[in-house]
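Ligand: pyridoxal-5'-phosphate. Inputs:
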Amino acid sequence: MTYHSTRGQAPVLAFDDVLLAGLARDGGLYLPQTWPRFSKDDMAAMAGLSYAELAARVMLPFLDGTLREDDFTALVAETYAGFEHAAVAPLKELGRNDWLLELFHGPTLAFKDYALQLLGRLFDHVLTRKGQRVTIVGATSGDTGSAAIEACRDREAVDIIILHPHGRVSEVQRRQMTTVASANVHNIALDGTFDDCQDMVKAMFNDQAFRDALRLSAVNSINWARIMAQIVYYFAAGTALGAPQRPLSFAVPTGNFGNVYAAFAARRMGLPIAQLVVGSNANDILTRFFESGTMRMDGVRPTLSPSMDIQVSSNFERYLFDMLNEDGARVRAVMEAFRAQGRYEVEPAVMQDIATLFSGHRLDDEATRQTIRRLHQETGELLDPHSAIGVAAGRACRRDAAIPMVALATAHPAKFPAAVEAATGVRPALPPRLADLFERPERYDVLPNDLEAVKAYVRRAARVTA
Ligand SMILES: *Cc1c(COP(=O)(O)O)cnc(C)c1O
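Predicted complex:
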């Protein structure tokens, strides 16, 4: 199986090269040229597998021989053995046909671990085999940075440098990044905003000579392998709730559209998904799109759910590619218009198609607090603000009460303790393995908002020799 770009002008690549490339050279995102499909019998045979066994079965067709099956199976087993819960992604019943899929049992307590823990191992494996090394550079407003650091720590072929805005991430989030005592992990606290951090990273990637010399690489959510690893828990939830015989629906608190695109991919692969509900906070570009058929950029507003504070959902381009019959030239035209005018429209016929599967729902901070409070009163569960948006969106948009609605819990409540305590009066405790987080020594370097200073730092940190 080979992969092509959503914009149709980048070379077709095999899985291992797509993994290392991240973004395609034409600015597009990689997708498989043909999709694996599981029959009803295949899915029936998934029931009862462990999460790691299921993960190997769902992902192997995407590798197409670029990794040995036994190597990959071992990597996957090692990845999910490090998760806290025996089921890895357990389902919890909130009410009749009302479910929560808990995706916060990885080392950094957010769903990003489910893909990034595997990605770190895949990077190391593929690079070691090729005799190469990379320097991973990224900007974070919180969850991605800690998950990426935890995934790459102590990996021989990788150095990782993460920029966060100095004084502007939560203390739990900062400490999850800065208390990792590994020689290949470097934290920059930049005197600036998250946007400044992102601009720094973009500028480094745009400097071709610098990029090549340090072999810069990224593990952000446009990396295909992250989507691939996220498809697994949709199959896990589906087969646990009766697929392929019974259909089910999902409600996903959404930022970059990566997580919910993985649900769409699972559906393409045969999982009977009836409905996909996208939950957003005040940064509601997707909800507005599903309501109006127009994608229009807006500024970013800070909310209680910072991991969804985005201006554009970069992974939506993957879905658009599917909706436009995999016509890369059309996607390219739409994305160019979007960049130039800050908006684009989708034809009514296409929009009608989209609306049969997707709906969107927005919650402001007050409604998010109310949802956290109500869920706590009803069920005793503490939900973080992102997960609460998922649950509320699912309840608001469900079309068929007889079909299970599964809301994704994307972060542990202890990751956002202030919001949860304000809503419920209960301060959620960190899980035992992170209980001493506030006593661990921190290591980070404060740098000015100056590209040359950041580049000099990255040059010193990187072990790549040109
Ligand atoms: C990243 C993140 C999201 C958004 O996921 P996308 O794949 O960007 O849509 C939602 N909740 C939490 C807790 C996150 O960390």
